[in-house]
Amino acid sequence: MSTAPTSPDIDSAPARDWLDGLLESDARDDRSAYIADAGFTARVMQAIPAPLTLPAWRKPAVVALWGVALAGISLALPAAALDVAREAYRLLGAHPVSLSGMVGALLFAGALSWSAAAYALRTSE
Amino acid sequence: MSSPEVPDAQLIARALVGDDRHAFAELVRRHQSSVRACLRKLTAGNHALADDLSQETFVLAWRNLKSFRHEARFSTWLYRIATNCWLADARKRKEELLGDRDDAVADEDAADASSSDTAHGDHARGAALKLDLERAMAVLSEGERAAIVQCYHNDLTHEEAAYVLDCPVGTVKTHVLRGKQKLKLALAAWAPDTN
């Protein structure tokens, strides 16, 4: 045993006796006898759960669902959808932006959504 | 035991971040001997059960690797999982295995007796003492046995043993003290003054 401080009960007992020697010698014998792997690691690796892989259809399915949702909203609230489209057109028309600016904004928005999705996936594990 | 120069922490990080199973396999290879030896001691020599529990220990370690905070050595953390596995199993079985073990030990005793003519005195004495110690360990309560194994067999400090057993340091000391008292009674024949 490699600790010095002991409780009063233990202090009252002899500091080291024959049993300490016996237990330590037994432990030394056991430690010196390395247990061969003999396929143990392979069995453990077979027993651990397979890695989580996302199915290939997941991404197109998500895009399709978003499309269906937007189409559904547009059909359910045609006036609101028209207002949004008109305002977006007016905004873009009133403040024309260059092609590079639009690409930059799209890239920024894309990176932002990917980061958010990656973060959400990591935290939901 | 390949590439022992790579520290455990690095292998753990690789297993965590990159889902690197080779890194985890290396960790298993490194620590399997000590974990299996610890469980063999806790199960009072039942090697088959100890190996089953060792496998369960490493599977649980893989599943909970994210919760390893490096507050203790990785081996100590593994001992903690192993001890919990053993405690859960022992409670489930209510130590039914002790009877089987006694039979096995009796068989070994018979074999020892039959070959006593050829056995060297010291070796036979050491083997008999080991068997008696194993039997005596089996008589201890779960807490006492676990505390003795952690403090002596795994050479942990009382504080580390308290972490492994998830109990206060004082409880570990009490378990060790009571366990040793029981062992002394069970192994009285081996005490120097009685020999």
Identify the notable features of this structure and list them briefly.
heterodimer; A: about 120 residues; mainly alpha; about 0% strand; disordered N terminus; B: about 200 residues
Overall pLDDT metric of chain A: 81
The structural class of chain B is mainly alpha
Low-confidence stretches of chain B: 108-119
In angstroms, what is the radius of gyration of chain A?
A: 34 Å
Can you offer a commentary on this structure?
The complex is a heterodimer of chains A (125) and B (195). Chain A is an all-alpha fold and 125 residues long. Chain A has helices at residues 8-12, 18-32, 40-47, 58-76, 78-94, 99-124. In chain A, helix 4 crosses helix 5 (78-94). The longest helix of chain A is centred in the last third of the chain and has 26 residues, at 99-124. Chain B has 195 residues and is mostly helical. Chain B has helices spanning 8-17, 21-42, 47-63, 74-93, 97-114, 121-139, 142-153, 158-165, 169-186. The N and C termini of chain B lie far apart (43 Å). Chains A and B meet through helix 2 and helix 3 of A and helix 2, helix 3, helix 6, helix 7 and helix 9 of B.
Short description:
The complex is a heterodimer of chains A (125) and B (195). Chain A is mainly α and 125 residues long.
Write the layout of secondary structure elements.
The complex is a heterodimer of chains A (about 120) and B (about 200).
Chain A: H1 8-12, H2 18-32, H3 40-47, H4 58-76, H5 78-94, H6 99-124
Helix pairs in contact in A: 4-5
Chain B: H1 8-17, H2 21-42, H3 47-63, H4 74-93, H5 97-114, H6 121-139, H7 142-153, H8 158-165, H9 169-186
Helix pairs in contact in B: 1-2, 2-3, 2-4, 3-4, 4-8, 5-6, 6-9, 7-8, 7-9, 8-9
